């Protein structure tokens, strides 16, 4: 059981590391601690448009910004530090398609024994490929060593699937020789010497419970290792996760059965859970209260009430930009308010890249953010 105490998102002074990598200048302003009320965040880039309007980010209502790990630079970090906001990185775990192109043996294998095509172009990776895992852990370590950020959010940490749409595509994977051998070693179950297709049939029927539990454990063990690296390199940083927002009952239990996301097991290592209840994208365009219902389910599932000092926090990322079904300006206040309801203690906007040319939406976000200094009942 992981028993580290609750972490506060404070920035430590930059320090020199043995690798010789550059670090943020020592005279760079430190970010403030997360506010006592609702964390109000922007995902998807530096919101330069707000600054260009003559407002500071804090005056606008923003106190946290999420950037893709590959887009963080010393200059952007310094700019956001000057704005006195928290800076978090999004880190891609299981969706580096270029790695699969260079290492075909890392491609997930379907129940037919063939390489599983990327559903809707979403390319996952076999979770037991050691070379891939080592490459992601090295990149994670370098990110935390290189930049004095306030935390890292794992993203795409699920099995080969395209679930971010109203009708998800979630093929059964991975049945490669490596995964089948590791399953047998871990469980003591011996599979007959038959074709991969026949073995997969047994795993999805006779041995389904054992197969699902094993897959959940594989993905959770990745989170354990990320947590260990965080504790070693930058222990004050938060470890968060962007994850599927379904309950155990939604989509016939697909979050566990198909995506291999065990939120309770990951809670041993994760500080902040950020479900992705994109209401318009997922078929709830006329029911933004669906957002708070999903967050409330997660709170019950994890035992999170939204009280100060809790070990875990829930900060959902909600859809404001148009992606498929549009989100009207008139709905923005409701969407953000639903995302901020208990047990949530933070809410972030998805995504800035889709909002840069929409000043009406930007203004609406600011009005609601400035009205959320305390938690919504």
Characterise this structure:
This protein has 377 residues and is α/β, with parallel strands linked by helices. It has a domain of 254 residues: Alpha-Beta Barrel (TIM Barrel). The chain has a nine-stranded parallel sheet. Helix 11 links the parallel strand 6 and strand 7. Helix 5 runs parallel beside helix 8, helix 11 packs parallel to helix 12 and helix 12 crosses helix 13.
Largest sheet: 9 strands, parallel
CATH topology of the domain at 39-103 and 131-168 and 220-370: TIM Barrel
Strand order of the largest sheet: 7-6-5-4-3-2-1-9-8
Task: Determine the N-to-C terminus distance.
Answer: 32 Å
**Second CATH tier, the architecture of the domain at 39-103 and 131-168 and 220-370:** Alpha-Beta Barrel
What structural category arises from helix and sheet content? alpha/beta
Helix/strand order, N-terminal first: EHHEHEHHEHHHEHHEHEEHEH
Indicate the percent of residues in helices. Answer: 25-40%
Radius of gyration: 21 Å
Hey, roughly how much beta strand do the residues contain?
A: 5-15%
Mean pLDDT: 90
Low-confidence runs of at least 5 consecutive residues: 1-35
Count of discrete alpha- or pi-helical segments spanning 4 or more residues: 13
Overview in brief:
The chain is of the alpha/beta class.
């Amino acid at each position: 059981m992981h028993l580290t105490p609750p972490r506060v998102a404070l920035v430590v002074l930059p320090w020199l590391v043995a690798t010789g990598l550059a670090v943020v200048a020592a005279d760079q302003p430190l970010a403030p601690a997360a506010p006592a009320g609702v964390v109000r965040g922007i995902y998807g880039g530096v919101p330069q448009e707000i600054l260009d309007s003559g407002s500071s980010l804090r005056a606008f209502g923003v106190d946290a910004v999420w950037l893709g790990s590959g887009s963080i630079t010393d200059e952007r970090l310094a700019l956001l530090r000057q704005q006195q906001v928290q800076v978090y990185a999004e880190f891609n775990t299981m969706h580096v398609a270029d790695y699969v192109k260079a290492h075909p043996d890392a491609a997930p294998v379907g129940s037919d024994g063939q390489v599983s095509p990327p559903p809707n172009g979403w390319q996952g990776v076999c979770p037991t490929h050691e070379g891939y895992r080592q490459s992601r852990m090295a990149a994670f370590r370098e990110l935390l060593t290189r930049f004095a950020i306030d935390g890292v959010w794992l993203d795409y940490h699920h099995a080969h699937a395209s679930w971010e749409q109203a009708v998800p595509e979630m093929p059964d994977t991975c049945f490669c020789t490596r995964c089948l051998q590791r399953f047998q070693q871990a469980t003591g179950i011996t599979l007959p010497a038959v074709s991969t297709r026949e073995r997969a049939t047994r795993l999805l029927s006779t041995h389904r419970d054992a197969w699902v539990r094993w897959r959940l454990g594989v993905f959770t063990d990745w989170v354990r290792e990320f947590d260990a690296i965080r504790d070693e390199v930058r222990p004050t940083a938060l470890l968060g996760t962007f994850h599927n927002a379904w309950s155990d009952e939604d989509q016939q239990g697909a979050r566990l059965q198909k995506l291999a996301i065990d939120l309770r097991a990951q809670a041993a290592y994760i500080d902040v859970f950020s479900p992705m209840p994109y209401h318009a994208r997922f078929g709830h365009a006329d029911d933004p209260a669906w957002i708070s219902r999903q967050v409330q389910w997660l709170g019950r599932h994890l035992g999170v009430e939204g009280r100060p000092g809790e070990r875990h926090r829930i900060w959902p990322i909600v859809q404001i930009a148009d992606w498929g079904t549009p989100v009207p300006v008139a709905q923005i206040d409701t969407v953000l308010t639903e995302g901020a309801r208990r047990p949530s203690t933070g809410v972030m906007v998805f995504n800035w890249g889709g909002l840069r040319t929409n000043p009406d939406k930007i203004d609406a976000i600011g009005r609601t953010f400035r009205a959320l200094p305390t938690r919504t009942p």
